[in-house]
Amino acid sequence: MGVLKYDGDEFDFDDRVLTHLQIVISTKLRRGENFFLSWTQPLERGSGRHAIWIDNGLPLHFFYSGSRAAAINREWIETLLLSAGRASGLYLSDEPEPRGATAAP
Predict the structure, then answer these.
(1) Domain boundaries, the chain
(2) Which residue in 32, 44, 55, 56 is a FRET match for 103, CA 20 to 30 A apart?
């Protein structure tokens, strides 16, 4: 389980999710685009929703508990970047199945 540290707060995410968030957030901030990041809290963590304003002026720290980098799902990156461009901001959606993947019978 990794941690996103932002403006004095800490938010727990799976390392794989955090890797994809880091790519999307860094892409948006390099473009000079501030935005909201929102996600739902899983039931096992008490449920609810979070929304934080991501801005170049506030420090970010991505802490990964694992030592190996996660494989990147480009389709998920594209989906998250499209979401981040909306007025409502980046909504952390579930990872889609890779294109061409088939379910087991």
Answers:
(1) 2-91
(2) 44
